[in-house]
Design a protein that fits this description.
Blueprint (H helix, E strand, L loop, with lengths): L1 H23 L2 E7 L6 H17 L3 E2 L2 E9 L4 H13 L5 E3 L4 H13 L3 E4 L16 E3 L9 H9 L4 E6 L3 H13 L3 E5 L9 H10 L3 E5 L2 H14 L5 E4 L5 H7 L7 E4 L8 H14 L5 H19 L7 H10 L9 E3 L5 E12 L5 E13 L10
Parallel strand pairs: 1-3, 1-4, 4-5, 5-6, 7-8, 7-9, 9-10, 10-11
Antiparallel strand pairs: 2-3, 11-13, 12-13, 13-14
Length: 387
């Protein structure tokens, strides 16, 4: 009897040790983002914001060891799909994140969802998955493309802009952005859609000068936004500029300088947000990377913490998709944006602010938060989502 007890005790100890080892195995996370080309800095900030959260936990998220594999999609949907397939098949990843551009999301997300994995976007938020095609395994922690621009239309109307020119890069997010603006703007508008990879905007600037609108609202992310602002200033056009933060993040501001002075900017995040989580994040990011974070980094940092809550709830077992999904819906983390929750379509409900590009006491230009434009705003497609 004693020998039997000893034997069973040894077996149980071996099982427990084996379970402990399995639990300690890092959870694979696939991070697909844009690291090269004119928009490469956007993905670099996504990568670095996410990595900062992991580093602060000593290689863990939610107390669970993680192995984050990062690859560059090159702003190519086919490349993104191939990377996602490799992450799903070879890495056995159940969590895919990192995508910046909506055209890449449109191609990658369906494959990830078909595989039963979680697709968690830290930036891309196209309308396709916000309404009737929403999916229980798809979360967007940043914004819904249309919703991000509704507050800009509200601002334009409040400031008496009755005749506007609207310009956006010609791809799915650009079309969403203009559609969102027009949902709340009631004046007259002409639309221009330059190519996503365009670098010379002389023809568009000439059209704007000839039309002489009350203001120009535009969406040109990354390098396109830098090139346009520089060329616009050089052309001497005096039409006021209205943009969302996507077209004037801290990197664009640093690259364009005086060309952006006086701009009105609508955004969901800024460096000067006074909440404790943001103060700590900005300080840590600058100390780690020696540059101020953009909203890309901030949203990725939030995304990492959201994933951490899901992994903690699942005890580090990423096969428990239902458990992780339920926990993600709670948005039980301290967002650097302050007020944040998920709507019924698992896109954000958050506040949007008016910001102005101003020169500080130190003589440097900065994007300064002025006032709240809308509170607790979700998106126009949420009511069509039935899960």
């Amino acid at each position: 009897m004693n020998r039997l007890r000893v034997y069973l005790g040894a077996v149980m100890l071996a099982v427990l040790c084996s379970s402990a080892v399995m639990a300690a195995d890092p959870v694979p996370i696939g991070l697909i983002t844009t690291l090269s080309g004119p928009g490469g800095y956007t993905g670099q900030d996504v990568r670095d914001g996410f990595a900062l959260a992991v580093e602060q936990e000593g290689g863990k998220l939610g107390g669970v060891p993680v192995n984050v594999t990062v690859e560059d999609d090159g702003l190519n949907p086919a490349t993104g799909r191939a990377i996602a397939d490799r992450f799903l098949q070879q890495n056995k990843a159940k969590i895919i994140t990192g995508i910046v551009f909506s055209n890449v999301m449109a191609t990658v997300a369906p494959d990830v969802l078909a595989a039963g994995a979680l697709f968690i976007s830290p930036n891309a938020g196209l309308s396709t998955f916000a309404g009737s095609d929403c999916n229980k395994n798809l979360f967007v922690t940043s914004f819904q493309n249309d919703a991000a621009n509704v507050p800009a239309g509200v601002f334009a109307g409040q400031h008496g802009y009755k005749k506007m020119m609207l310009m956006a890069a010609d791809y799915v997010a650009g079309r969403d952005m203009i559609a969102g603006f027009k949902m709340s703007y009631k004046g007259d508008a002409q639309e221009i859609y330059p190519k996503l990879d365009q670098t010379d905007f002389s023809a568009e600037i000439a059209r704007i000068r000839d039309a002489n609108p009350d203001a120009l609202f535009y969406f040109l992310p990354g390098g396109a936004g830098i090139n346009f602002l520089k060329q616009y200033a050089q052309a001497g056009v005096k039409v006021p500029l209205v943009a969302t933060i996507f077209s004037l993040d801290s990197q664009i501001l640093a690259a364009t300088g005086d060309a952006s002075a006086g701009m009105s900017v609508i955004g969901h995040y800024n460096l000067d947000f006074p909440n404790a989580a943001n103060k700590a994040f900005v300080s840590a990011f600058v100390a780690r990377y020696h540059r101020p974070p953009t909203f890309y980094a901030a949203d990725a940092y939030d995304t990492a913490h959201a994933i951490g809550t899901a992994l903690r709830a699942a005890g580090g077992d990423d096969s428990k998709i239902d458990v992780m999904r339920t926990e993600l819906r709670k948005a039980d983390f301290k967002s650097v944006r302050g007020n944040f929750k998920f709507g019924p379509n698992q896109y954000p409900v958050q506040d949007w602010y008016l910001m102005q590009v101003e020169r500080g006491a130190d003589g440097k230009l900065a994007v300064v938060t002025k006032s709240k434009v809308v509170s607790d705003y979700g998106d126009p497609f949420a009511s069509k989502c039935k899960m």
